[in-house]
Amino acid sequence: MSAKLNIVSSAVWIKRGVAKAKPEKVKLDHEELRQLIDNGEVHETSDDEHMESETEQNPVAPSRGLRGSLSNLAASTDNQEDKYKMDCYDNEEVADRDGLRGIACFANNKDDPYMTNVVDSDDESDAGDLELKETDNLVAALKCEDDESALVCYLYNHDDKDWYVHHHYDLPSPALHVESVRYDPGSDDRRGNLAAVGSLDGDITIWDLDILDLPEPCYTLGTPKSESAGKKKKKAKNWSGQTAVLSLAWNEQMPHVLASGGADSQLLLWDLEKCVLSTSVGCCKEMLQSIAWHPTEKSVLLAGSMSGTLSVVDCVTMNGEIRASWDFGKKAEVNKVKWDTFNNTCAYVACEDGYIRYVDSRVTGKEVYSVKAYDDKAVESMALNCMVKDLFVTVGEHNLSIWKNDPTGCTLAHSEDLDLGTLHTVEFCPDIPNVLVVGGELNGLIKPIDISLFSGVQKVFQ
């Protein structure tokens, strides 16, 4: 009998103020949820059905988004330049919306005539644990325990030292990456608290973290809305959806754009306004384990591959343009990439050969420096602190290391072995600079750590 899989593969913090203070709870079985989602589709006349048939035959026709909305951002598939409206997105007017006004409207719109089974969290006996305080953070983590996979939301409160499971969603298969998406094209202010999950079976599912006990995702990218709630799935054109999704990156400057990298060696850009695949960026032909949008250049993406290459890709055109590239060798499989938010022409790279590499996007093919972080083991992941300059951390087999960057290298401030087994993910809290979360394979699989308690960190970052 094979050993059961136990792992936290990915985790992401939810910034304070993003999640609703009182999450909604829906008492629906699978069939009720499917019927409710189907009600968001317009099937009132045969003309509508005819139009849907034409849409399937003609990929240029507008399709419904996450919330039944229509997007005016679609471009002709023949238009090769600025396909994603990157230059004019900020000035676009959003099209009028009909149907469901936001994923959360399934649960939190008490005036909706369909919603007869909605209950407030404060009507439940555990209302005190579910309601979020202003000082609470959530951590969304992909957890597989005894071969059961779930998207688990933990509550963390630094002042009260609280850390517990707030709610969770069952997943049909293990997943490798979770990404916070603070965007809701159907809400009035376009803000949301969604999570995109990239799975081993090739699906990218969208979950609303403000709705508890959802039995299914709100949407599966690449699947028509009428079929996303459990019917046979149709995948987007030119996307098989049969290989693992290895990486995801939400574009905060263009919130309708989500990028994904997969084992099928495709870099894909998704339009969240319409919930459709925009294109496969033609210049990338490798399995991308980590991708990251540039913090200020909205069309520029950093992409690290399993074959040890790193590319700076400008996605402003359909095929994309590689601005700079590096080849670290096949043994230097890229596990994680991060732009330096304090020097955004540069980036950190965590590699399978145990090295941390620091590169300047203006100097293609050459590293600023490389430092051996671990002997005979990989740098599994890394995280950059966006509030403390030059502070970053790496994780490897059992080990957490804390570093300070400088122009010629980096200084090790603290290193210790944890009791979580091999570590796979690490992320800094966006609201508390000295707190991070680490996920591994043993003893609860995930926990928060206050690095300010380490004397070495105090000394180096005094």
TrEMBL record:
- Per-repeat ranges for WD: 245-273
Q: Where is the composition biased (Acidic residues)?
A: 46-55
Q: Which InterPro entries match?
A: PWP1 (IPR044285), WD40/YVTN_repeat-like_dom_sf (IPR015943), WD40_repeat_CS (IPR019775), WD40_repeat_dom_sf (IPR036322), WD40_rpt (IPR001680)
Q: What SUPFAM superfamilies has UniProt attached to this entry?
A: WD40 repeat-like
Chain spans, region Disordered: 37-77
Any one GO cellular component localisation term in the record: nucleus
Task: State if Transcription regulation is listed as a keyword.
Answer: no
Keyword annotations of the record? Phosphoprotein, Repeat, WD repeat
Q: Which GO terms describe its biological process?
A: rRNA processing
UniProt protein name: WD_REPEATS_REGION domain-containing protein
